[in-house]
Design a protein that fits this description.
Elements lengths: L2 H10 L3 H16 L14 H10 L17
């Protein structure tokens, strides 16, 4: 994983745990055949491609907040 991409992506998604989850999930998608959302002139690993997608604003995340079940 390229350090420069990692630092730039950390400026976008500041929570390291969330960044790891977003990048790993997207890297798995790319490895399973999903098309990249960006074009690159260099050959990048799936993880670096996912970081670039975060940097360029092509992917984001949304936190899921669990709501408690209503009392019966």
């Amino acid at each position: 994983m390229r350090d420069d991409y990692l630092r730039q992506a950390q400026d976008i998604i500041t929570d390291p745990d969330i960044l790891v989850n977003v990048v790993s999930r997207r890297a798995k998608q790319l490895k399973s055949g999903y098309k990249p959302l960006i074009e690159s002139l260099e050959r990048l690993s799936a993880e670096d491609m996912a970081l670039r997608e975060v940097i360029e604003g092509k992917i984001s995340y949304e936190l899921f907040e669990e709501t408690p079940e209503p009392a019966k």
